[in-house]
Each structure stands twice: as C-alpha cells, then as structure tokens.
Amino acid sequence: MLLTAFALLLLLAVLLSSLAHRTILSTAALFLVAGFVLGDGALGVVSLTAADPLVATLAELALFAVLFTDGMRVGWQDLRSAWRLPGRALGWGLPLTLVITAVGAHYLLGLGWIEALLVGAILAPTDPVFAAALVGNEKVPPRLRQLLNVESGVNDGLALPFVLVFLAIAAGSHDLHLGELGLELGLGVLIGVAVPWLAIKLEQTRWFAASTQYEPLNALAIGLLVLAIGKATHGNLFLAAFSAGITVATFGPRQRESFEHFGELIAELFKLAALLVFGALITPSLLAVGWQGWLFALGALVLARPIAIWVSFLRAGLSMREQAAVAWFGPKGFASVVYGLLVLASGIGAAQQVFQIVAVTIVASILLHSSTDIVVARWFDDERELPAWYGVARRIRGSKERRDEPAS
Questions:
Q1: Environment class of residue 217 by beta-carbon count within 10 Å: exposed (0-12), middle (13-18) or buried (19+)?
Q2: pTM, whole model, 2 decimals?
Q3: Is 134:373 a contact under the CB 8 Å cutoff?
Q4: Which residues form the Cation/H+ exchanger transmembrane domain (predicted)?
Q5: DSSP alpha helices (H): ranges in 282-350?
Q6: Distance of alpha carbon 79 from alpha carbon 71, whole angstroms
Q7: Is 240:189 a contact under the CB 8 Å cutoff?
Q8: DSSP 160-217
Q9: Degrees (nearest 5) of the Cα angle 327, 329, 331?
Q10: pLDDT in tens for each of the 408 residues of the chain?
Q11: DSSP annotation of 288
C-alpha cells in the first residue's frame, strides 16, 4: 500500500509542480500531510512504526542522496572562494544555534542539560532542500546560494559528533570513544575523496571511456560505491556523500554536468518518499507536547537560528535582506530526522520526549519553510520590486542617451 500511495502522490506532485513553482504550494508539505492522513494518525492505510527498518534506511538513503547532489554543486575552488561566509555560519552559527536551542529545551520543556544539549545538536543542522526556490533562483545573489548550500552540506556531519557524545552521556556511558568518532568522520571524508578521484582518473585513461548514453550513470555508480564502502567500513556516510560530490565537481566537471539533472531527480524522489514515511509516523499523541512544546518549536525556528546568524554575521558585509534570508532559512530536514530516530532507538530515558519535540519542530519547519521559499526568493527578483513604469522609463532613457552620443 505504501508503494501505491507514493506512486499516486508522485503523479499528483508532477501535475501540480508548475503551480507549486509559482505559488506557496509545496510538494514537500503535500507528502508530509498525505503521510499523516494515510498513517495511523488518521486513516491507518499506511501503518509504520519508528522501529521499522524501512524508516531508518529510507531516511539515511535520502540524506545521502541529497548531500551527494548538494556537494556536486560546488568544486573545491568554488568552496575555497566561498568559504568566508559559510565559515562564519559553521564556526559561530552552528554552536550558537545549538546552545540557544538547548537553553529553550531546558527551561521550557524541563529537560536535563544533557538531554537539552542533545535536542540542540539534533536541531542545529539545516537543510535547504525545503528552500529550493531560494537556492535555485538565479536572481538570488550567488554568495547567498553558496552559503546555504555549503553550510547545509557540512553542518550535518559536524553536528553528528555532538549528537553521539550527548547521547552517550545521556545513556550513562562514561567511555565516549572520541577516538572512534574521529576515525569515523575522517574515514568518511577519505572515502568521499579517494573513491571518486580514482574512478574519474580511471575513466580518463586511454583504456576506458563512457558512452553518451551511460555517462549520467558514472556519478551514480560512484555514489553507490561510496555508500557501499562507507557502510562496510563504518565511515560517516554523510560526510562521505558531501565529500564525494565535491570531489566529482572538482575533478570531473563533465561527470557533474551529465549527472546534474538526473541526480537532482533521484534526490527528489528519496526526499519525497522519506517525507511520506515520516508523515505516516506522526500521530496526534506524538504531537501532544503541550503549549510549552509548541512554543519551543516556534522559538527554535524564529529565535534560535536568527539570533545565532545575526551574531555570526556582524560586519560580514551581507545586506539586511541577505542576512534575513539566511536567518530564516534554517529548515530542519533529513539530518534531524535521522538523528531523532537514532535517539529513539537508543533507549535512553528521555528518548520518547526528545523524539516528540524533534518531530514537532521538523513538522513546523517543513510547513513554514517550504511554504515561504518562493515568497522570500521574490525579494531578490529586481523586476518584481520595480514599478511597472520603470521598464518603459528605462528604455526611453536608454534611447535618449544613444541619440545624444556623438557620432564616431
């Protein structure tokens, strides 16, 4: 039944996609709401629990696909040239968001400091997938799009060690295995760089060449190989995915270009499937977090990220409009879903409460951010900001200037 529901919703999303690109209608919100309606929270047509292997597997694959395609949008040179602003967001914005969110979880929800810090770490990563109209709008300043892309791709992996450390402390483990965590992260980056580099160099030899028909599958094969080796060696899959995307973009621009559209479609399919499943997990009892829980979720979206970004980008040279866009678009997505499921499966005392508040915040984020991306994107559409007579006046002024030019 799940496959049938996904196929019908996918067809509906395709038919409504043109309208969604012009209005606040969101396909992400459509799949989330449909999952809730079809799940045990309403009709009970699609019955899933958080313990089902499908849930964690799909969320993991969706996040991997999204990070791989995100990383492929920038090569190493692009990343170096654009690192100044993402560095502020990651070096200052991420820990500040974590701390501010944790303070809210402690005082509003009554969680202990470790559990509150765990919630902060889970909700600190951002996901621009739900702000696609902003990231994909060419009239939005390139540095702003790069900032959101680079930040979201890197902060998922950077937040993971905090999640694991706080989770280990909450479980009562005093042996945090920091060396193992460092090895996992480093191994993920190594796999993400080495595997694509070797594959691309192999194709560039005189013994091999990809046909035009199979060329889009080259990057897909690389991504699958990175995923397989990462799982076999227990390297961090998310850092491996983003590193692999950057490596392909750096050393294989032809592979990136041939895979770009195909890869985005694959990531979109995984994203929508994960949202459908996540929506099916939501029940009225899961959303019953009281007014404090909903107040916390709202504060995590409209206060924690904006305050952290405002502090992080003091004297950074961003316009007020750019800074407001960055502050608002800190949507919570797949990384937070995966980390929340990790906590739920851990069996710690506050596991259910942590998962509930994380789920409520993610639901609110998806509904708010995916419905406002097109609105904020239009802030940067200069033609929309100008009065209708401006275009005529500009053409008249241009014609006059040309007439006044001296003949050569």
A1: middle
A2: 0.75
A3: yes
A4: 12-372
A5: 284-287, 290-299, 305-312, 320-328, 334-346
A6: 10
A7: yes
A8: HHHHHHHHHHHTT-S---HHHHHHHHHHHHHHHHHHHHHHHHHHTSTT----TTTHHH
A9: 125
A10: 888 999 999 999 888 877 766 665 677 778 888 999 998 888 888 888 877 888 878 878 887 887 788 778 766 666 666 677 778 888 888 999 999 999 999 999 999 999 999 999 999 988 755 556 566 666 677 777 777 777 776 777 678 778 878 988 888 754 556 677 678 878 999 999 999 999 999 888 878 877 878 888 888 999 999 999 999 998 888 889 888 988 998 898 888 888 888 888 888 888 888 888 888 888 888 888 889 999 999 999 999 999 999 999 888 777 888 888 888 877 777 678 778 877 877 778 888 899 899 989 988 888 787 777 677 777 776 544 444 433 444 444 454 444 455 544
A11: -
CA distances from 333 to 31, 149, 189, 363 (A): 14, 14, 22, 9
Give the CB-side neighbour count of residue 395, counting CA atoms within 13 A.
4
d(CA 215, CA 199): 13
What amino acid occupies position 204?
A: Q
pLDDT recorded at residue 226? 95
Write the CA distances from 68 to 89, 144, 377, integer angstroms.
20, 20, 24
Segment 39-43 long-range contacts (CB within 8 Å, at least 24 positions apart):
39/279, 39/280, 39/281, 39/282, 39/283, 40/280, 40/283, 41/280, 41/282, 41/283, 41/284, 41/286
Contact between 180 and 222 under an 8 Å Cβ cutoff? The reply is: no
Query: How many helices (H) does the chain have, and how many strands (E)?
Result: 21, 0
Closest CA to 98 of 348, 323, 330: 330
Which residues have C-beta within 8 Å of that of residue 398, sequence separation ≥ 6? none
Handedness of CA 108, 281, 162, 196 (dihedral sign): negative
Report the 10 Å Cβ neighbour count for 220.
16
Please state, in angstroms and rounded to a whole number, the distance separating the CA atoms of residues 310 and 324.
9
Contact 30, 12 (CB under 8 A): yes
Identity (one letter) of the amino acid at 223? G
Please tell me the distance from the alpha carbon of residue 389 to that of residue 386, in angstroms, as a whole number.
8
Per DSSP, 301 falls in state I
Start-to-end CA distance of the chain, whole Å, equals 75
